[in-house]
Amino acid sequence: MTDARRQLIDEVRARFGKRVAVTDPVEIEPWLSDWRGRYHGHSEAILAPSTTEEVAEIVRLAGALGVPLVPQGGNTGMVAGATPQEDGSALLLSLRRMNLIRSIDAEAGVAIAEAGVILANLHAAAEDADRRFPLTLGARGSCTIGGLVSTNAGGTQVLRFGTMRSLVLGVEAVLADGSVHDGLSGLKKDNRGYSLDQLLVGAEGTLGIITAAALRLVPAISGRAVAWLGLGSPADALAVLRELERGTSHVEGFEIVPDDSLSLVLKHIPGTRSPLDGEHDWHVLIELTDDGSLDEAPEALLAKLLAPLIDSGLIEDAAITSNEAQAEAFWRIRDSISEAERTDGPTLAHDISVPVGDMPRFMIEAAAEVERVFPGTLASGFGHLGDGNVHFHVRGGATAAADWYEAQAPAITRLVHDLVTAAGGSISAEHGIGQMKRDELARLAPGRVAALKAIKRALDPKGIMNPGKLIA
Ligand SMILES: Cc1cc2nc3c(=O)[nH]c(=O)nc-3n(C[C@H](O)[C@H](O)[C@H](O)COP(=O)(O)OP(=O)(O)OC[C@H]3O[C@@H](n4cnc5c(N)ncnc54)[C@H](O)[C@@H]3O)c2cc1C
């Protein structure tokens, strides 16, 4: 251990007590690899403050000693942004002990939650106050507010309420010089130049440490209807969404599923069954919610809006339900796609976006191009069609060689990213850049990276905030 890291750990212990600097390798080990288990790093300690003042003091000490910090929440991120470097030069800074919901103002629709609050706990607290925090995703039992803010997470409810960015009213954060930015008052109007709060959203811990956030709450849900549609193409799916949007602003989920993804779920996930009897090339899962403002039952409204589209043949078949067990069974199919694909063979995932109107064509053409250039692969996209964001997965198939992933992944990913860039899209729609996409971002968007680096240099001149992530 270098003198600087040893000194930082000793100082933290002296000031805040032994448990604020964990050095037991057994306790540290689970936090050194990313969620997917592809990146492994090293850190001699996890610093675990429980107040903003402690975070500020640790950052000041780290700056003075030149020790980089890697902020970490639930460690569920998809791009290894919270994984320390292999050389062990940085220490992990866990925000998990900062887990207070400081206040919930149901009237104003605002919650102030500390960085380490787990998303599911915020959901429960908002529900107790007859409100809802609308952002949700598969990792809700482990991911934290600090991580969600820092990755500008999306999820399945973005269509109606936007990504984390649009739900953050302000943040409290410790900047690289140890000063505390307090944006928690959540002013509706504030034109004092650059928005530091929004700059920190999606910064992946490279500009400062989020210690708390003021978050928008919306009215609680009083009922929902969920539909599963069978149709002929992604273009038909988008046409259905546009028609629905003409009739209501209550559609929250609109997820596209290709037939091969459904088939893999039915094959590999026990207890699943197809929602429709016939065969369809494409499927859509729709969720429409009522927050008490609808004057008819959500199921009746959804059926009324879909009926003319079924009559016209745009929709080949549909199953609509307000039965919770059936609704959950439909969602389980959608949520099990990645697991089913992995069970079937090696899978390469890309979280990409293109302009919404171009997505149907992109999904078809990009899949055909990948399968042409890499014979034997199977490519398809599923997910948030209404946001112009799909998970574009390339599978090696059941007969893929054992080293398929290592041998093919970089070239396939480069091709997918080139196609996305040519379509005016983004190589990271929801998950961020982290370590995983850093080199690809530099290759494809050098101008953007130069601007990001200039901001980074200005706010973190010593480079102690999550170095090696997002930008080199
Ligand atoms: C099963 C599953 C489903 C998912 N589904 C979705 C989805 O639908 N949509 C979506 O957008 N994402 C999804 N994700 C990924 C998503 O990015 C994370 O779940 C979440 O945003 C990260 O929260 P975390 O607390 O685990 O952060 P971590 O993984 O610990 O950290 C993520 C990044 O934020 C930084 N960070 C963490 N805390 C702080 C802080 N307090 N201050 C500054 N920086 C910080 C880290 O350094 C890192 O760069 C999914 C992940 C899983 C495992």
At a glance:
The chain is α+β, with helices and mostly antiparallel strands.
Report on the architecture of this protein:
With 472 residues, the chain is an alpha+beta fold. 37% of the residues lie in helices and 21% in strands. The chain is built from 17 helices and 18 strands. It has helices spanning 3-16, 25-28, 52-65, 119-128, 145-150, 158-161, 164-167, 196-200, 234-247, 259-268, 298-311, 324-335, 337-344, 359-373, 404-422, 438-444, 446-459, and strands spanning 21-22, 46-47, 69-72, 91-94, 101-105, 110-114, 131-132, 168-175, 180-182, 208-216, 218-219, 223-231, 251-258, 282-290, 317-321, 347-353, 378-384, 389-395. A five-stranded antiparallel beta sheet has the order 5-6-10-8-9. A four-stranded mixed beta sheet has the order 1-2-4-3. A hairpin with a 4-residue loop joins β5 (101-105) and β6. α1 packs antiparallel against α3 (52-65) and α9 crosses α11. The longest helix is centred in the C-terminal third of the chain and has 19 residues, at 404-422. The radius of gyration is 23 Å and the shape is globular. The relative contact order is 0.12. The model has no long low-confidence stretch (mean pLDDT 96).
